[in-house]
Amino acid sequence: MPTDAKETRPAGDAGSACELHSMHLRFVRLLPLVLITFVAGHPTRCEGRVPPLRVGLLVHRERVAFSGGAGLKVYAGRGRRLPPLSAPAGETWQARREGREIVVSDSRGAEVARARRRLRILPAAGGTVTILDVPGHWDKRTTRAYRGMIEIRTDRSGGLTVVNIVDIETYLRGVVPSEMPANYPLEALKAQAVAARGQALIKAGRHRRQGFDLCATQHCQVYGGATSEDPRTDRAVAETRGEVLTYHGRLADTLYSSTCGGHTANNEDYWPDQRPVPYLRGVPDFEPEDGVDLSFPLAGDQLKRYLKYAPRVNCYQSRYAASDKIRWWETVKRAEMKRRLAEALGDFGDLLDLRVAGRADCGMVEKLAVIGSRKLVTVEGGRRIRSLLGLQSATFAIESYRERPSDLPVVFVIYGAGWGHQVGMCQVGAAGLADKGWDYRRILEKYYQGCVVVKRY
């Protein structure tokens, strides 16, 4: 993990104040343009400049605790009206909401400043700002360090919102190792960096009403800040600096998920309310030379074997994925299944059976028939079906088990393939391809067919 730099600056240093003022002005000038042009697929988005991002770390908090290993400058005033406060290295300060103001207390609990609506925190050069009690990511760490500027602002809920203001390349240093393990092959990490850069640009602005561009969770992309950084993923970001995927000159929506299981999905298979996207087409996760005896769409015994026993596809990689991400199964008693379904679907009577009523070419379930004693309910779309049943993916089969043929089911056995929405790049599949010698451009062009890698800045 990176460590905070040991350089500090004297309290009230005019140079650091000018640095913050200049930095803030740059963000203020750029941000409106960035937000205006962050419309999915805009052909000139981010060309020629490294765009800044506002990443929401915390919302609706009563208190926020922060510190800096190399000391911090805390700006409670606007512009140059008030000199910054200096938080000593290693000391934990706290901000709390009081009316429209933010009250800042030092490590002894003594009030040191009040800010009107907004507080800015800047680390020493090369350092970071540590925020305590952050929701845990995959690594479960709840104390995290961040590069760039931290802004604490009042929100409409009566609490505080914490925003990290960084350029997109710094942001990616905290995203790539949070979305793909740093021990994956370098070419897979580079493919992830390009895909994540595209996702940041496509999704930026979705939280503008909350005062930031992107959240730090799976809803946007998992962002772990400097705490998540790793030299290998830093290299992947640096070696793909400014690169994105485009389709016919327009920025591509580079969706990705963990493990496809053998075949990726069309975007409308999972999200039926979406129009088909030409580069988000399902593709086999194997090559002709691999000798995999599968021809999609699958049916009958071949489909059953595929869902139960993983073929040697690119994402069949025990080095990179747990076996239960590649193939999985679950046994659910009828009473428990009825409870799950009734919470979302309402009263359909007694649960008589559960059957797959429609399946996409990739194997994903598109329609699920819930057969009740009062009515039949058909659930459509991979996303809704997966959420309804609480499954790892929407590519599965269901078998009902009864004591006698005339009886109601005792249990349902569900078995399936993959983990995630299975649209776009298969991350574990990318690792498998990298091990075969594929470079990141070729990996990306496989999963996003018709797209090309271009350098925007």
Q: In words, what does this structure look like?
A:
There is one protein chain. The chain is α+β, with helices and mostly antiparallel strands and 457 residues long. The chain has a domain at 51-241. It has 11 helices and 24 strands. The strands form 6 sheets. Strands 4-3-8-11-12-1-13 form a 7-stranded mixed β-sheet. β19 (365-372) and β20 form a beta hairpin. The radius of gyration is 25 Å and the shape is globular. The relative contact order is 0.13. The model is unreliable at 1-44 (pLDDT under 50).
**Overall spatial form:** globular
**Low-confidence sequence ranges:** 1-44
Radius of gyration in whole Å, from Cα?
25 Å
- What's the helical proportion of residues? 25-40%
Largest sheet: 7 strands, mixed
Cα separation of the termini: 28 Å
Mean pLDDT over the residues: 89
In the sheet with the most strands, the strands line up as 4-3-8-11-12-1-13
Helix/strand class: alpha+beta
In short:
With 457 residues, the chain is α+β, with helices and mostly antiparallel strands. It has helices at 14-37, 168-179, 186-203, 231-239, 267-270, 300-308, 323-326, 334-345, 382-389, 427-435, 440-447; strands at 52-61, 63-67, 72-75, 85-87, 93-98, 101-105, 111-116, 118-123, 129-131, 144-146, 149-154, 160-167, 214-215, 243-247, 250-251, 256-257, 327-333, 351-359, 365-372, 376-380, 396-401, 411-417, 425-426, 452-455.
